[in-house]
Amino acid sequence: xxxxxxxxxxxxxxxxxxxxxxxxxxxxxxxxxxxxxxxxxxxxxxxxxxxxxxxxxxxxxxxxxxxxxxxxxxxxxxxxxxxxxxxxxxxxxxxxxxxxxxxxxxxxxxxxxxxxxxxxxxxxxxxxxxxxxxxxxxxxxxxxxxxxxxxxxxxxxxxxxxxxxxxxxxxxxxxxxxxxxxxxxxxxxxxxxxxxxxxxxxxxxxxxxxxxxxxxxxxxxxxxxxxxxxxxxxxxxxxxxxxxxxxxxxxxxxxxxxxxxxxxxxxxxxxxxxxxxxxxxxxxxxxxxxxxxxxxxxxxxxxxxxxxxxxxxxxxxxxxxxxxxxxxxxxxxxxxxxxxxxxxxxxxxxxxxxxxxxxxxxxxxxxxxxxxxxxxxxxxxxxxxxxxxxxxxxxxxxxxxxxxxxxxxxxxxxxxxxxxxxxxxxxxxxxxxxxxxxxxxxxxxxxxxxxxxxxxxxxxxxxxxxxxxxxxxxxxxxxxxxxxxxxxxxxxxxxxxxxxxxxxxxxxxxxxxxxxxxxxxxxxxxxxxxxxxxxxxxxx
Length: 540
Ligand code: N01
What we know:
Elements: E1 4-10, H1 14-25, E2 30-33, H2 42-45, H3 66-71, H4 81-94, E3 101-102, E4 107-113, E5 118-123, E6 128-136, E7 158-161, E8 176-180, H5 184-196, E9 199-204, E10 210-212, H6 217-229, H7 231-240, H8 259-271, H9 275-279, H10 289-306, H11 310-316, E11 329-331, H12 334-338, E12 343-347, E13 351-355, E14 359-364, E15 381-385, E16 388-391, H13 400-403, E17 406-408, H14 415-419, E18 437-439, H15 452-470, H16 482-497, H17 527-537
Parallel strand pairs: 1-2, 1-6, 2-3, 4-17, 6-18, 7-16, 8-9, 8-16, 9-12, 10-11
Antiparallel strand pairs: 4-5, 5-6, 13-14, 14-15
Helix pairs in contact: 1-15, 6-7
This protein binds 3-acetylpyridine adenine dinucleotide.
């Protein structure tokens, strides 16, 4: 290896591996550092019971290598975490990326050396490396978010976060457990815990909507067949899809669809538990509130008639924002588990949650109290004895992992100061004043609104092309201008304001100091528009 690498990639999940594969093809010198002992990123750390992909894994995969596709066979349509981790490990071996890995190595600082036009990277063990380009592939959803519940200092029971699951899964047999959070992770772990626990308290602040998982073998076989035998067609489908998925999506708005037509489409999405088909069921699901409500009504009707008792439906269908603006989940026994005798759903929408030594407490907050007559006021506080708390409380999305690194760009400016209260990027990749630095799946990227494996590969291709165009000019620097920044920000903001995502509240707007005004962070235009706009603004 030379003294100064062409590129240091940090993070060995889908994005890091995708970029490494591209750079290796182009004969760049690079290394991939990762704090974990294995490749896998999110699929290494999120190893809680029930963790699996909620979109078809035939799509959620690398498309670089037809040869690898001949050897790898998914065992089911929505693969489990161990299978996806094994896929990533085997792909890494197949592409002979092992010699480029620096595992168990956590990046702590990055400093731009203006004179040498290169980055200096320092790791927590004191090791340093220099590289012309840095690619931070740290994951949009990688730094766990754990709320600081009042009383947490006195709590003496066990506690885990779904995204920091121990190597050996604890036994929950005969235990009383509280799960805080009912997003995708909560919905996956709860039915597994309900099989074992003596008592399971499900602490829900905002419900998520979920479709029952599908065992439609035919859909799985078709997808696999097309990927293997009609590769060009399959890749075209992914490239032309807003979501980077091979799922069928509508070409017409809901306003042009009869009720019968909409219901027929809905039935297919529901039967196949097809998330991207469901959010692509009409072209105006996220821009026309009437179309959105029609789909939401069908969703609610289906849940009322198939999955939910009347009392549960009232709590679980009471979602504050338009349909799909909070991620739709896929459930395997989640709703059924809430009716089990050992499970209790606790709605804390208007309550404060706190901990004591061996219990979790939910007390009515003052917010709505004045509206109720005295004899209808709920009990002030209820406590539940527990042995453990499981936080299924998600992530410091988009910025958490990036800002854990001290990043110092031109003129000594720190990234966290530059971002201040808004993580401004261009295309979710570039940050003005931080030359030769690339973010993968960063704030402002299509990432989490798409098939992440596909958007990772698109960004990896764009970044590797940019790097390779510069390789011969040793002292050239890639730096975006404020004009490009303005163009990109106004383009993405204009798209956002036309959608129902605007002004909604979920982790898409993130819970941290970096975004106190809760700006919606992902790019809403979908992958093809993203690429087109990228070519016109960044690489004309
Ligand atoms: O996290 P979340 P997640 N008191 O942020 C609640 C991907 N993913 O890990 O909504 C009480 O969605 C919070 O409540 P509220 C996928 O993209 C994919 O579940 O803020 N509750 C919410 O219910 C997903 O969307 C897979 O009111 C508190 C929950 O915690 C994303 O990761 C599997 C609280 C957090 O839900 C994130 O999902 C899993 C508090 N103080 C995840 N603080 C696949 O299958 C937070 N909450 C591919």
